[in-house]
Design goal:
Number of domains of chain A: 1
Helix content of chain B: over 70%
Strand order of the largest sheet of chain B: 1-2
Strand content of chain B: under 5%
Distance between the termini of chain B: 25 Å
Largest interface: A-B, 33 and 31 residues
Radius of gyration of chain A: 22 Å
Strand order of the largest sheet of chain A: 1-2
Structural class of chain B: mainly alpha
Oligomer: heterodimer
Shape of chain B: globular
Number of helices of chain B: 21
Structural class of chain A: mainly alpha
Helix content of chain A: over 70%
Number of helices of chain A: 21
Radius of gyration of chain B: 22 Å
Amino acid sequence: MLNFPILTLIMVAPVIGAVIILLIPKERDDAIKTVAAMASLTSLLLSVAVFFGYDRLAGGFQFQEDVAWIPQYGIGYHVGVDGFSAPQLVLTGVVTFAAVLVSWKMTDRPREYFAFLLVLVAGVFGSFIALDMFLLLIFYEMVLFPVYVLIAGWGSKRREYAAMKLTIYLFVGSLVSIIGLLALYFQAGGSFDFFDLQAGIAALPNSIEIQRLWFLPVFVGFGVLASLWPLHNWSPDGYAAAPTAVSMLHGGVLKATGAYCALRVGVQLMPEGAKFWMPLVVFFCMAGLLYAALIAFRQTDLKYIIGFSSVSHLGLVLLGIAALNELGLNGAGLELFAGGVMTGLMFALVGMIYERAHIRDVRELNGMMRVMPLAAVGFVIGALTLMGMPGLPGFPAELQIFMGLWDAAQTPSVMFAGATNSWYGIVAIAAVLSIVINAAWTLRVAQRVYFSEPKDMALQKLPRLDALEKTAIVLMCGILIVVGLLPNTVMSVVQAGVQTIMRGINTAG
Amino acid sequence: MGGFFGSVNQGNAAEWLGILPEILLMVWGMVVLAADLIGGRKVSRRALGITSALGMVVILVIAIIARPAEPQNVLGGMIRNDAFTLVFRVIFIVAGALTCLVSIDFRPLRAGGEYFSIVIFATLAMCLMAGANDLIMLYLATETASFSLYLLAGFMRGNKLSAEAGVKYFVFGAVTSTIMLFGLSLFFGLGGGNTSYQAVAQAVSNPDLRVPVTFAALLVLVGFAFKTSAVPFHFWAPDVYQGAPTPVSGFISTASKAAGFAILLRFMFYVVAPGQSEVGIALASLMQPLAILTMVIGGFLALVQQNVKRMLAYSSVAQAGYILIGVTALAANPSDPANALAAIIFYIATYMLTNICAFAALGMVEQRNGGSDYAHFNGLSRRAPYLALGMTAAVLSLLGAPPLVGFVAKLVIFRVAISVNLIGLVVIAVIMVLVSVVYYLNVVRAMYVEKSDTDNEPFYVPAPTGVALLLTSVAIVALTAVSPPFWNLAVEAAQSFLPRL
């Protein structure tokens, strides 16, 4: 197993799938979709193998592959996963597979649609496994343009506006991160390798100043993709316009890469910078959570509601990261996974309604329970996950994030010398409240859409869910329930990764 | 001049081997011409075009096999045969072969034997430009290449725009080449009657001559700026690109531009030695404003175009600006010259592949949809999905989006600029990249978002053009992953170029 390039295969399988799809004549719809499903299933199964093959006791980075690529520039093909990224691979596999299943009815240029979708997925997998920062940037950027084409070409309302807005936001964000990374690369000895860069930055004579200078651009640049308030504005518009599969992938997985890169590149490379700037990040996260909770009340468009719940979910993840302690990071890792599946599930369910009824306004929908009972169950499970209901994975995740934040409140502040971060406690309380409000509103929406008395008879005549859609719902709900009941399956892996990360943060400075 | 005849009389085989690719190109050009004349109707134009391209590929292989182990001066020092020359030969011959393929089915062109032989002669002249190590060779090679291109630009005899393009290109070209010739003649005089770069360089390094030498260098620079379409000598570019047959526009915007950079680099570093003499410093300090102007003006003018061909023309001006960043970095502080020069070479080579791909796709759209406005690209993803994908790959690579090869090229250029502290220049370049998102993505938007009335009509892409498109677009996508050998080749070329510094 040691020399088997399993991580590369996970990333390459969608690319191969995309190439095969492009070679299939466009009339052969089913063949195209089958190949897409096979490619994503391959990645999913391999990801699961990596997840269970990850040695929890050893921790650290495993399944590493390191090949020199452009040695003159210190660029290598170096990939590996730690406990933090391994669950995210499974998340990506699950959401991708489900996304392919729910877009089986795509009739508009399916060949290009699935090819772009798979390239996007390859970029996401690549971002999670890259241990060379140059490679990471390539994968990270590789995602942007397929998303533009997919939203602009296959989206719904105001798709061009939303696609361009999203692309420009994310492109500018990534450029800011790239500039920060290049600056670090030049100062820290000219290697893009994660470990070399980490050691190089720590060994700089003015290391602390450099870290404080470049942390914010790098963290915020990636944070744009994780919809860090106030730079989240692209997100609800983008999701509202995107086709279902893209909303699922973007909301569930792509945003996760933003938070993941913010942690991996921002916090891990520049722990001193992180310690200095975190109060600011915490403030932004709190503002984002409250904002999302309040704004969701004004929304009647189902996709906007889910879009804001995904902003909430990522706000929680970033809060967990900002706590900078083991509890917080554990929570963030689990929340990334659980919230990702939750967002993917919710967008899939909204898509199922919209593609049948062409209505997304909550006020016009009613009695959908009778049409798609399974979807109603899925929607409630998703909302409860967001709310942090015990028995679902949102509970252990959010609990740890809030406890981590509470713990962090006792630590002395670096930014405001002499004070402690005592106000983190207030943030934790505000965050809990905002999540409850948001989830309560989502449940109320569920009541209106699914469980109300059927008024519109046309809605009752809509086609029922087909087997593929049911499979997708059951797959995602099943994972939420299993991980909710046995959180330790994921927690033990996350913890193994977080311990290494924390060692790096604590030894710095 | 005695050395020239003397060395040839010695009959040194290595000397002739040094210009073997050029000799073969000349012979091949004549064979193609003769085949058309003698064969008449028996030789189909299509077969002629394919054979021309294949023959060039064979010559390319021979050129690579026959490369010298050590850099050598051949023909009495008129040509310098080093890895730098070789890499540019590869660029020109690949561009020439692809242009032949793309031209075959460009109907209005009616490309026959004379067309393909002119493409081959232009390629030959560009190869000589890359190797030119002598004032006379520089001028002769440049003029031969230019005249071939004037003919190609005006090749669609029945088309007013094409005729206008040919004449306009010729008038601009003639004026700038006269100015350049004046500069070269000054170098000849100041250089004590020598024509060889090395001898001239020695003579003009005399500090007393700095004022006239600077003046002469500026005049020569005008010629180079014209060939590379750098601002303010870019005015010909949009009109010529728009009027010329599209495959020829592709050829002019890539091979001819590359040749312009080849002579610029060789002349600048072999004759005036930037950073080492006062003239060199003066010339080097000109490169930065030139780069900025070229990027900014090219970029913003590309933004306001309604026609994709004109947009690509201005975008090629902007691309020249990015290459000039590399030249600025190289000239400003040649502390790490090999990497800087390699970055320039890498950029030029990848840009060649990308732009030929874009123009090939554009040529197809122009023929089938009757024009090259953005509107003519509407709904292309439905009618011709592969063509749309190829065009998407090309424009995204021009933009510099990862993982396409254009990203690697931009990154290495920016890296060398940052390593000599040209931060401001890189910031401007990054802003211009952001601006270019809009005009490049507009093409993608037209193809994937817009609809047209002809969505369901078939869109036939003939095989030779299809092959050229496939090769270039696969290269654009795959070269990133397998770039190291090519990068090493660029570094090798840079090192064999540099001992003169």
